[in-house]
Amino acid sequence: MKAADKRVAELLDRWLASVELHAQYVELDAAAYARAQDWPQHQRPTRWLVDLARTRLLELKAKADEYRQRGDDSFPEALELMSFLTTLLGSEHIDRFIPLATGKPADPGVSGTVERPRLRANGDKSATGSRKTASKQSRSQAPARAAQVAVKAPVAAKSPAAASRAQSQTERMVIADAVRFLEWGREWPALASQIARLADRPPEAEVRAMLRTHREEILQRARRPAD
Question: Sign of the CA dihedral 133, 134, 137, 139?
Answer without folding.
Answer: negative
